[in-house]
Write a structure and sequence with these properties.
This protein has a seven-stranded antiparallel beta sheet with strand order 1-3-2-13-12-11-10, sandwiched between helices. The protein has a two-stranded antiparallel ribbon with strand order 4-5. The chain has eleven helices and 13 strands. The chain has about 400 residues and is of the alpha+beta class. The chain is globular.
């Protein structure tokens, strides 16, 4: 099969808006050929993208297979639902800012004021802003240090679950409930910190789960409900979910058996941590709405989600001259980061100051203030490492502005 034989590609190009945006049509063609070649090389299962400028979507497209089990039966569409993984962290950051603006939280607040498990000498100095910037020292995501035998907190949570039988069984119902609810927190905080707060950039989804717990306690509602009620629904993000309704499962892009099971089996999450580090499913169009809200300074279509000041904090380097970050072998000596968002620095093809987040699996949302652009793309893949899918894609897009 040749590149030209792959179905899908761009299904919506506004030529007038493309020209007005100052985006090179040839670059757009190169982007589509890039995706198609990666699909032919079995590096991607499928790919889709959305490009907008000044609130107008001027191009989007999709190609490849929606589902790994039946690649010939359904194609990825631009409105297909896909798990956005760590892009969820941007929503978590916005939720924190909302609560700060309500006077319920503040950045330099000790996490221990909300969660008593942090009231110990090893973690009592961790503050909310440390969690937002991945500088808390809380355990890193597995493989962050390229370890050959990684272990996450979920592998040891059993050790902190209360006994219900035998001589050490917890008899008091209230105490039993308390211990069950705190087991995951104790597992996250087991062992010593990897660094002192503010000392190193250590990517920690566990830290964002802690933020989700703080959001729930400060708002008085479950984290997932808060995100949907206070951010997604007001923006009109009607195809964004933590649990995709069963009638929409056929529209969800799935790349392996693990993802299929995650979609089909809704476990009892009563004692599980909030899905604040990577639990959302969404679409390109819904991500555009969220990204445009960020680009507009916190509002969209007459609805204000958060203040302009909060968006400035999200998108501005918070780490001063930078801190050390191992960063999957990158060994960066002066890592910079916003309050919840990665920031493009000098030397990249995307303009300096572009911000957003990547999601495992893979996908990315970027906000480019220089060109007043919102960019989203899904590049689902089972290949463990494929820099062309993320870095290559954003370099092509970055080169397209005339």
């Amino acid at each position: 099969m040749s590149v030209s034989e792959i179905s899908g590609v761009s299904d919506a190009i506004d030529r007038a808006a493309l020209q007005k945006a100052g985006f090179d049509a040839e670059t757009l063609g190169r982007l589509e050929r890039h995706f198609q070649q990666l699909i032919l090389d079995n590096k991607l299962q499928c790919a889709s993208y959305l490009l907008s400028q000044d609130g107008i979507v001027f191009a989007k497209g999709a190609s490849g297979s929606l589902h790994y089990e039946s690649p010939e039966s359904a194609e990825l569409r631009t409105d297909s639902i896909r798990r956005i993984a760590s892009v969820t962290k941007l929503f978590t950051a916005v939720a924190v800012f909302q609560l700060i603006e309500q006077g319920k939280l503040f950045l330099r607040q000790s996490v221990s004021e909300w969660i008593e498990e942090f009231k110990n000498p090893m973690y009592e100095k961790v503050q909310i802003w440390h969690l937002l910037t991945h500088t808390s020292g809380i355990q890193a995501d597995p493989f962050y240090y390229l370890e050959p035998y990684p272990m996450g907190w979920w592998n040891i949570v059993f050790a902190f679950e209360p006994d219900t039988e035998g001589p050490y069984a917890v008899k008091n119902a209230d105490e039993l409930e308390k211990q069950r609810c705190s087991a995951w927190l104790k597992a996250v905080l087991s062992g010593k910190p990897l660094a002192a707060p503010g000392e190193q950039w250590i990517y920690s989804s566990a830290g964002y789960a802690v933020l989700g717990e703080i959001i729930a306690r400060a708002s008085g509602m479950p984290y997932e409900q808060y995100i949907l009620d206070k951010i997604a629904k007001p923006l009109g993000m009607n195809r964004t979910f933590f649990d995709v309704p069963a009638e929409l499962h056929s529209e969800v892009c799935v790349i392996n058996e693990f993802e299929k099971q995650r979609l089909d089996e809704h476990e009892n999450r009563k004692y599980a941590p909030p899905r604040a580090g990577g639990g959302l499913y969404s679409t390109l169009d819904d991500l555009f709405l969220f990204g445009q809200m960020l680009l507009n300074g916190g509002h969209y279509n007459g609805v204000r989600i958060v203040s302009r000041k909060s968006i400035e904090k999200l998108a501005s380097n918070t780490l001063g001259s930078g801190v050390k970050g191992f960063c999957w072998g990158g060994k960066i000596t002066e890592f910079t980061y916003g309050l919840g968002a990665s920031i493009t620095g000098p030397g990249e093809w995307m303009p300096e100051g572009t911000y957003g987040h990547e999601g495992a699996g893979r996908c990315k949302l970027m906000v480019d203030p220089k060109h007043k652009a919102v960019i989203a793309f899904f590049v689902p893949s089972n290949v463990e490492w494929c820099p062309e899918s993320i870095t290559g894609t954003q370099n092509i897009i970055g080169s397209g502005w005339l």
